[in-house]
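Work package 3, deliverable 3.1, input record:
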Amino acid sequence: MSDGVLTREQILAAAQDVLRRYGPAKATVVDVARALGVSHGSVYRHFPSKAALREAVTHQWLEQSHAALAVIPDGPAPVRLRAWLSALFTAKRKKVLDDPELFATYTVLVGESSTVIAAHIDELVGQLEEIVAAGVERGELATADARSAARAVFDATARFHDPAHAAEWSDPAIDAQFEAVCDLLISGLVRHARP
Amino acid sequence: MSDGVLTREQILAAAQDVLRRYGPAKATVVDVARALGVSHGSVYRHFPSKAALREAVTHQWLEQSHAALAVIPDGPAPVRLRAWLSALFTAKRKKVLDDPELFATYTVLVGESSTVIAAHIDELVGQLEEIVAAGVERGELATADARSAARAVFDATARFHDPAHAAEWSDPAIDAQFEAVCDLLISGLVRHARP
């Protein structure tokens, strides 16, 4: 492959293949370059270090959970909130069921880069905050601090999106438990009608 | 030590020492017997198998989290609920900070015996259910199903009691996040006054 057409996307795709094949402990930039048929200098032109490349791969993988979340249709905030939480749970569960080995690989990578995971959580909580704030504006939800409430919703649903709980996601009771937690959280945010 | 005075408690204490010293992968019943200066037959008289002994040690360790929970004073359900959740979080966090190695050992043991952990969760959810049901009786809380609500409260606070999250418990923001989740859950259960 000519260096001239080497794109960032091609490197990230090759890096994911290499990580899956050799595991996060053994995969190197030289392996990635070899898989692409280029020199490792060509890879370093796009990513200044092995750590930067790994973080970019991790970031891209985490971003994939967002795709489904960004398209939650407009509507009453309680409905949007549940749809958003459900889409996140579905996306994470699909990832682990589709490719458990790759999921395990990424769990190691995510554990390595605390700044990448912190930015990821910030972005997700930001999406929740937007839904909560819109609900407060429409008089559907009541909370003094939309950001803190959004973070509380995110933390209270950790069992349904944190990879540490992946083993529990095939439990037959998990869907009912997810709905019960959503019910409780939404009930805690809904502005109760006072005649 | 004479076999005649060998008690269940002595065996459990010795087994914990042995597990800590050799690790869960290597510890054997013979090691436990040697630590006590008795034959392994004497240990088997109390516990029919190595698995039974390990489960008993695990059960005892989990039970220690209950001690503080059983003494939550009577009072308004929202106050009791928060005190119970806070006592559980405090007990778990104390365990990991006091002796991280023993905590890691028990995390392995707990992962081995799904029936022991299921019984433990049932017992904890039962305590929550009692608080919720008492609150409904007193007109302080509103829920159609106290058991399901109790389970939802337990699941929604996983980040603050499940050992999978132990690494997050020294985060400076964790206490504020715990209180925010409690606020939200209690707000979801409180019967809202309607004039």
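The CA atoms of residues 7 and 46 of chain B lie 8 Å apart.
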